[in-house]
Design brief:
The chain is α/β, with parallel strands linked by helices and about 220 residues long. It contains 6 helices and 11 strands.
Length: about 220
């Protein structure tokens, strides 16, 4: 798939897929969206000593970076194990041009950004002390065959239902649910009524939250 880099309204960059007419992130602001959906309404609501995060999908790696940025603000008395699925990894040139480390004041972020993208696929790599990343190159529907610890937090960040409707239907959500711990949290930018109903059918407590800039609502769902 042919991709090009575009700048979003908050100054952060995203990738645009010409064939699908689809951005990887909101054009209102890639960084703002990631921080609002996956940090404010995700990581900051989980209090486990060891947090196992499942991301669908890795994309540009921005969600990993904002998660590390938030982790560095804490006392770091907990451990994060971050598992990220991706079928179409971005290339070295795209990593260089996105330059997400420039969005953060911490001078260590250039090295952290490079370490995230240079990390071998299929291997758990310690990016910083207490933060382990495992990137898995696969189709999301291979999730059922992947060995994972019980997941406390899901970043459900698939492409929109307009271009990939099958990713927002019951079979994939059922696979995700099977990997989650009781009281685990799933957070997503979507607020589709069909998604809310599917999650409720799968015994999730679903809550509509204020969306990121440019979007009225989003979903949090706790597995009961």
């Amino acid at each position: 798939m042919k991709r090009e880099i575009k700048t979003t309204n908050d100054g952060s960059k995203t990738l645009f897929i010409n064939d699908l007419n689809e951005n990887y992130h909101s054009h209102h602001g890639a960084l703002q969206e990631a921080e609002h959906v996956f940090i404010k309404n995700g990581l900051n609501l989980v209090n486990d000593c060891e947090i196992n995060i499942l991301e669908l999908g890795f994309g540009t790696g921005l969600n990993v970076l904002v998660t590390i940025n938030e982790y560095l603000k804490t006392d770091k008395n907990h451990v994060i194990n971050y598992f990220s699925l991706e079928k179409y990894p971005i290339n070295e040139s795209e990593v260089k041009d996105l330059a997400y480390f420039e969005l953060f004041d911490n001078p260590e972020f250039k090295n952290i950004y490079q370490k995230i993208h240079l990390a071998d696929w299929e291997k758990s790599v310690e990016i910083i002390s207490g933060f382990n990343l495992k990137k898995i190159e696969c189709d999301f529907f291979d999730l059922k065959d992947i060995d994972l610890p019980k997941i406390n937090l899901v970043y459900f960040d698939c492409f929109g239902a307009r271009v990939q409707p099958d990713l927002w239907e019951k079979p994939l959500f059922e696979m995700v649910s099977d990997k989650m711990a009781i009281n685990g949290l799933l957070t997503t930018y979507s607020s589709k009524g069909s998604v809310r109903r599917i999650l409720q059918e799968l015994n999730f407590q679903v809550e509509k939250k204020q969306g990121p800039p440019g979007k009225r609502e989003m979903i949090n769902a706790i597995k009961l």
